[in-house]
């Protein structure tokens, strides 16, 4: 029981839990590094930079931030949500936002 509570608290107290490198094998690039595919990044988001024409690894979207669902394409226009959040659109006039599941 104590172990279950400790694990639950660690998940709440560590908001970037899903973005730590040691939990995601095969990823080698930190946020800010240049990338060509989302699978290269710890965060699993390779964001296009319209100013320079390149792309860089970026953190996943937090709660209430604008988001897009993860696609099969190599580069994201807007990052998908963090683990535990879902990218949904509540109002047809507003963009998609990360919400608690």
From TrEMBL:
<dbReference type="InterPro" id="IPR001981">
    <property type="entry name" value="Colipase"/>
</dbReference>
<protein>
    <submittedName>
        <fullName>Colipase like 2</fullName>
    </submittedName>
</protein>
<dbReference type="GO" id="GO:0016042">
    <property type="term" value="P:lipid catabolic process"/>
</dbReference>
<dbReference type="GO" id="GO:0005576">
    <property type="term" value="C:extracellular region"/>
</dbReference>
<dbReference type="GO" id="GO:0008047">
    <property type="term" value="F:enzyme activator activity"/>
</dbReference>
<dbReference type="GO" id="GO:0032094">
    <property type="term" value="P:response to food"/>
</dbReference>
<feature type="signal peptide">
    <location>
        <begin position="1"/>
        <end position="18"/>
    </location>
</feature>
<dbReference type="GO" id="GO:0007586">
    <property type="term" value="P:digestion"/>
</dbReference>
<keyword id="KW-0732">Signal</keyword>
